[in-house]
């Protein structure tokens, strides 16, 4: 039976180490969170990010714009935050209200403050192996794999299912940077189950509920399930739903060596890695030594 890797526990450890790191810094890193509109889910996410930031001893600034804000107003706000020397990290909460171009707005963020790691410059730095801010969910996935197998992932066969710009590609590149042998699968991949069976570490990042079955796994493989899918749960009552991953947990658990649950796996790591990135951004920008 697989060991469960608790993203909640690992995220708490990351948060504690960020708090310890912040205490050793010569100044206080600052994260600016930009919320456009009044989407209730986005408001909750932003509140969590602000609370997380303050809990680890950093400063947060919340900037809000109404849903009627224009593209120029959003970009002007980002530009002000770019110029504000007190601000180390800028996070633009997505999605933006209809009519606004998120990609164009993201590109306005100074790459040195891009704590979500989403700008083209951050992607370029990742591809080139240069110092930079890496996307949070992929970073969290690598940390979870290390929790299962130890810090040295060198030579491990990794299969990432999904090639999105936000998740699949950066995840593959981060495992490559750990000297893993990485294969990226996608919707045109032939014999996906057979390919998955070659993986020491399997990272489904697809968005298809319970797609990966137990017989897709090499016995003992580590499954880092990035997918988050809401499905009907009539067993919980009429109209009820629940969250599941891209892996069929019950089917995979007896075969895998380690597996992350959904919820409570990769999800919590994304928030923790944002805090880590804010410390990194502050250290790179201000010339502070990055704590271990
Ligand atoms: P996208 O829809 O952008 O990408 C999905 C990828 O899966 C594509 O590359 C697609 O291939 C591939 N795919 C689709 N169907 C199949 C199939 N049948 N077989 C193999 N590959 C397939 O999604 P995202 O990358 O944005 O997100 C993926 C999942 O991760 C979602 O469930 C999302 O909710 C979750 N997520 C979780 C986060 C977290 O914090 N845990 C953060 C962000 C996302 P192709 O390119 O050929 O179309």
Automatic annotation (TrEMBL):
Keywords: Amino-acid biosynthesis, Histidine biosynthesis, Hydrolase, Methionine biosynthesis, Multifunctional enzyme, NADP, One-carbon metabolism, Oxidoreductase, Purine biosynthesis. It holds the Pfam family THF_DHG_CYH_C. Residues 135-284 form the Tetrahydrofolate dehydrogenase/cyclohydrolase NAD(P)-binding domain. CDD domains: NAD_bind_m-THF_DH_Cyclohyd. GO terms for molecular function: methenyltetrahydrofolate cyclohydrolase activity; methylenetetrahydrofolate dehydrogenase (NADP+) activity. Its EC number is 1.5.1.5, 3.5.4.9. NADP(+) binds at residues 162-164, 228. This is Bifunctional protein FolD. It comes from Henriciella mobilis. The lineage of its organism: Bacteria, Pseudomonadati, Pseudomonadota, Alphaproteobacteria, Hyphomonadales. The gene is folD.
């Amino acid at each position: 039976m697989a060991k469960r890797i608790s993203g909640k526990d690992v995220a708490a450890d990351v948060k504690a180490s960020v708090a310890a790191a912040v205490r050793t810094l010569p100044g206080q890193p600052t994260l600016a969170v930009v919320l456009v509109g009044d989407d209730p889910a986005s408001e909750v996410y932003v509140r969590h990010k602000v609370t997380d930031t303050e809990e680890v001893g950093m400063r947060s600034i919340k900037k809000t714009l109404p849903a009627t804000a224009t593209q120029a107003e959003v970009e002007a706000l980002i530009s002000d935050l770019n110029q504000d020397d007190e601000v180390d990290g800028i996070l633009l909460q997505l999605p933006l209200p209809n009519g606004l171009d998120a990609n164009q707005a993201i590109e306005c963020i100074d790459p040195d403050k891009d704590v979500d790691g989403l700008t083209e410059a951050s992607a370029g730095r990742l591809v080139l192996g240069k110092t930079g801010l890496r996307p949070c969910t992929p970073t969290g996935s690598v940390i979870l794999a290390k929790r299962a197998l130890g810090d040295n992932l060198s030579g491990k066969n990794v299969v990432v299912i999904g090639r999105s710009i936000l998740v699949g590609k950066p995840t593959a590149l981060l495992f490559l940077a750990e000297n893993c042998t990485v294969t990226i699968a996608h919707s045109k991949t032939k014999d996906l189950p057979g390919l998955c069976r070659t993986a020491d570490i399997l990272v489904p990042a697809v968005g298809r509920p319970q797609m990966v079955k137990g017989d897709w796994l090499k016995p003992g493989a580590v499954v880092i399930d990035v997918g988050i899918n809401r499905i009907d749960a009539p067993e919980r009552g009429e109209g009820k739903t629940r969250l599941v991953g891209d892996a069929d947990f019950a089917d995979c658990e007896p075969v895998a060596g380690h597996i992350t649950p959904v919820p409570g796996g990769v999800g919590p790591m994304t928030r923790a890695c944002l805090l880590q990135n804010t410390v990194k951004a502050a250290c790179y920008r201000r010339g502070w030594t990055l704590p271990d």
